[in-house]
């Protein structure tokens, strides 16, 4: 991978989250997905439109990871969670809260942070 | 259409084999399976071979022809990759090839070399079965993904880490007499609940080990077996495969495995049997919670009830429907690309009475193998039956 290579719409999506302008893709039947998507895998609809991501989401499940991959060596222990934002769910790192205190149903906002180990960007959730 | 007979099967010892290459491991299993089958290797017409992380662990792609060569075959050879369900998917291809009349003798197998790269790199390699953009970059590991599913199961249906510990205890006990198993060590519920956490709520004893190993089987038609007077009493009578969204975040449920539901339904219908006809099963318990998902998807339990099966003694070797008599992935080990064929071999041996745990299921006629890839975005289910 070269220094300047981008992962297409994924990087554009991260940019949008970073500038508080986060979005998801919605088909005409209301199914939500994250980019890149050309078709709704649930109903085959190809008419996907960008919809603003709700400001807050709710933690659906979470785990504190103590045995990480090398790319997260210095991050561990850290919390990875799936949070529901309306019709779309997002996986991210939970920050600004003691791992012991993270609970299902917690309300979080979405942001972009840095991975401690590599400095690369990552989706981050913070309590709201 | 003929249901394929299993004419021979072999697995290597599962464990750490730092000095052995993938090709050497597969050669051991493949040559033994061919020898056992009593079939002239010249009659073999195809190889389907499962492998997941060969590029990362051995810098080796294009393993199909390499592995055919390793067992002395000059046949069309195809590597099949579906994460940890690679070998189960290879079995399905082999079954279809025999059923549609394209071949009378097919070798199916798989191998994985994992311990040579160490725990951190193996964790990294396993993680690529998840969605790179949206899961791996958010810190997801393979245990972490199952931990998210486990917590969701507890939230939705109840159950505890102690329930999961009973699954680990059971599978360790089952493996005690399995000489192929990586871990032959009895553990207690306390050992499992008190072990270090790897991804909460899952601990060290909820997870299968990192394993090197290979497995192979030789499949043939009923008529070939009869013509050549082979001892091949076990047939694969049903095959099924299901899929799901790759990323957990895109699924409607975190506590169910619909890919396995679909695979089971298809395999049962194909074989003309139902869950109640099944005497025992080898299921994909890469983590203790995965065994719960498996036995619910296979229709042995209602949703939310599989969690207590091991604790209640229903899935132990003296229970009504033993699960993972081999020790499962948990104790037997999980060389990911070989697992599906190792399960096939185990079920065949339990049905023909040659497995060291066969005394637990003495009059059994129907066994099932359930092989899941990643967080169950791929699953194969195979039904095996003893024929007249
Ligand atoms: Zn849709």
Explain this structure to me?
The complex is a heterodimer of chains A (128) and B (388). Chain A has 128 residues and is mainly beta. Helix content of chain A is 9%, strand content 39%. Chain A contains one helix and eight strands, in the order αββββββββ. Chain A has one helix at residues 8-18, and strands spanning 23-26, 32-33, 49-52, 56-65, 78-85, 88-94, 107-114, 121-127. In chain A, the strands form two sheets. A five-stranded mixed beta barrel of chain A has the order 4-5-6-8-7. A three-stranded antiparallel sheet of chain A has the order 2-1-3. In chain A, a hairpin with a 5-residue loop joins strand 1 (23-26) and strand 2. With 388 residues, chain B is of the alpha/beta class. Chain B is 36% helix and 17% strand. Chain B is built from 13 helices and eleven strands. Chain B has helices at 22-37, 54-58, 63-70, 86-99, 118-127, 142-157, 161-175, 189-194, 222-227, 258-271, 288-297, 328-332, 339-352, and strands at 5-11, 46-50, 77-80, 105-112, 197-199, 202-203, 213-220, 234-243, 280-282, 366-373, 378-386. Chain B has a five-stranded mixed sheet, sandwiched between helices. In chain B, a hairpin with a 4-residue loop joins strand 10 and strand 11 (378-386). In chain B, helix 4 (86-99) packs across helix 13. The model of chain B has no long low-confidence stretch (mean pLDDT 97). Classes of the chains: A mainly beta (128), B alpha/beta (388). Chain A binds chain B through residues 7, 10, 33-34, 41, 60-73, 75, 78, 80-82, 88-93, 99, 104, 115, 120, 122-123, and chain B through 119-121, 123-124, 127, 133-141, 143-144, 147-149, 151-152, 155, 196-202, 245, 247-250, 254. Residues 27, 29, 31, 40, 42-43, 45 of chain A line the site of zinc ion.
List the helices and strands and how they pair.
The complex is a heterodimer of chains A (128) and B (388).
Chain A: H1 8-18, E1 23-26, E2 32-33, E3 49-52, E4 56-65, E5 78-85, E6 88-94, E7 107-114, E8 121-127
Parallel strand pairs in A: 6-8
Antiparallel strand pairs in A: 1-2, 1-3, 4-5, 4-7, 5-6, 7-8
Chain B: E1 5-11, H1 22-37, E2 46-50, H2 54-58, H3 63-70, E3 77-80, H4 86-99, E4 105-112, H5 118-127, H6 142-157, H7 161-175, H8 189-194, E5 197-199, E6 202-203, E7 213-220, H9 222-227, E8 234-243, H10 258-271, E9 280-282, H11 288-297, H12 328-332, H13 339-352, E10 366-373, E11 378-386
Parallel strand pairs in B: 2-3, 2-4, 9-10
Antiparallel strand pairs in B: 1-7, 4-7, 5-6, 8-11, 10-11
Helix pairs in contact in B: 4-13
Zinc ion is lined by residues 27, 29, 31, 40, 42-43, 45 of chain A.
């Amino acid at each position: 991978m070269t220094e300047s290579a981008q992962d297409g719409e994924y990087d554009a999506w991260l940019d949008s989250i970073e500038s508080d302008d986060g979005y998801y893709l919605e088909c005409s039947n209301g199914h939500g997905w994250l980019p890149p998507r050309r078709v709704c895998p649930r109903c085959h609809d190809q008419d996907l439109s960008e919809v603003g991501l709700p400001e807050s989401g709710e933690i659906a499940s979470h785990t504190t990871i103590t045995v990480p991959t090398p790319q997260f060596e210095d991050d561990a222990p850290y919390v990875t969670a799936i949070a529901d934002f309306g019709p779309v769910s997002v996986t991210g790192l939970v920050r600004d809260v003691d791992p012991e205190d993270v609970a299902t149903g917690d309300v979080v906002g979405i942001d972009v942070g840095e991975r401690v180990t590599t400095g690369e960007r990552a989706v981050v959730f913070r309590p709201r | 259409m003929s249901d394929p007979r299993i004419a021979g099967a072999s697995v290597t010892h599962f464990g750490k084999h730092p000095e052995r290459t993938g090709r050497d491991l597969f050669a051991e299993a493949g040559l033994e399976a061919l020898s056992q089958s009593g079939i002239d290797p010249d009659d073999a017409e195809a190889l389907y071979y499962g492998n997941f992380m060969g590029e990362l662990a051995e810098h080796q792609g294009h393993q199909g022809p390499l592995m055919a060569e390793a067992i002395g075959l000059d046949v069309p050879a195809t590597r099949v990759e579906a994460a940890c369900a690679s070998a189960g998917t290879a079995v399905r291809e082999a079954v279809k090839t025999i059923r549609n009349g394209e071949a009378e003798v097919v070798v199916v197998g798989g191998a994985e070399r994992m311990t040579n790269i160490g725990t951190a790199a193996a964790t990294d390699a396993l993680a690529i079965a998840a969605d790179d953009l949206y899961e791996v970059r958010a810190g997801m590991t393979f245990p972490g993904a199952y931990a998210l599913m486990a917590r969701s199961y507890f939230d939705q249906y109840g159950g505890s880490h102690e329930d999961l510990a009973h699954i680990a205890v059971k599978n360790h006990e089952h493996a005690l007499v399995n000489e192929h198993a990586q871990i032959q060590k009895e553990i207690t519920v306390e050992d499992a609940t008190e072990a270090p956490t790897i991804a909460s709520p899952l601990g060290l004893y909820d997870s299968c080990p990192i394993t090197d190993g290979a497995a192979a089987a030789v499949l043939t038609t009923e008529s070939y077996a009869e013509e050549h007077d082979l001892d091949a009493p076990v047939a694969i009578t049903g095959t099924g495969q299901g899929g799901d969204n790759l990323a957990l975040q895109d699924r409607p449920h975190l506590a169910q495995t619909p890919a396995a539901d679909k695979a089971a339904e298809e395999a049962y219908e194909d074989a003309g049997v139902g869950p109640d006809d099944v005497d025992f099963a080898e299921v994909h318990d890469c983590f203790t919670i995965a065994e719960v998902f498996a036995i619910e998807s296979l229709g042995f339990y209602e949703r939310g009830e599989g969690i207590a099966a091991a604790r209640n003694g229903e899935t132990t070797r003296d229970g009504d429907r033993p699960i993972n008599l081999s020790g499962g992935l948990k104790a037997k080990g999980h060389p990911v690309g070989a697992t599906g064929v190792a399960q096939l071999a185990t079920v065949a041996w339990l049905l023909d009475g040659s497995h060291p745990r066969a005394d637990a299921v003495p009059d059994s006629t129907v066994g099932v193998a359930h092989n899941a890839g990643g967080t169950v975005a791929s699953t194969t289910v195979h039904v095996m039956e003893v024929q007249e």
